[in-house]
Write a structure and sequence with these properties.
Keywords: Oxidoreductase, Selenocysteine, Thyroid hormones biosynthesis. The chain has one domain (4-100): Glutaredoxin (3-Layer(aba) Sandwich), CATH 3.40.30.10. The protein contains 3 helices and 4 strands, in the order αβαβαββ. The protein has helices at 4-14, 48-60, 75-80, and strands spanning 22-24, 67-69, 86-91, 94-100. Strands 1-2 form a two-stranded parallel ribbon.
């Protein structure tokens, strides 16, 4: 949720020309793992239901676009290398642009 306001502004700026989608992946900084202080209290997902419950916290923050959840085998995260976070632009089914956000 650290950069959510920046993401929301991106959606507002480009929603007329692009569709946005957030894919919720494995929790990188879970409370029962490598947690930051002042972070949302989310334990490492043990099931798809855990991951869906955690994604609902993000949905409550209104990201201005659909939120979907990666499967427990982390297929999306593996294919797109989404750590710490990434922005991809796809056109006609092909990645035409990607940017990795620096760790803070």
């Amino acid at each position: 949720l650290f950069k959510l306001e920046e993401f929301k502004q991106l959606v507002k700026d480009f929603r007329d020309v692009a569709d946005f989608l957030v894919v919720y992946i494995a929790e990188a900084h879970s409370t029962d793992g490598w947690a930051f202080t002042n972070n949302v209290d989310i334990n490492q997902h043990q099931s798809l239901e855990d991951r869906v419950s955690a994604a609902k916290i993000l949905v409550q923050k209104d990201p201005l676009c659909p939120v979907v959840v990666d499967v427990m085998s982390n297929v999306t995260s593996t294919k797109y290398g989404a750590l710490p976070e990434r922005l991809y632009v796809l056109q006609a089914g092909k990645v035409i642009y990607k940017v990795r956000s620096p760790r803070r």
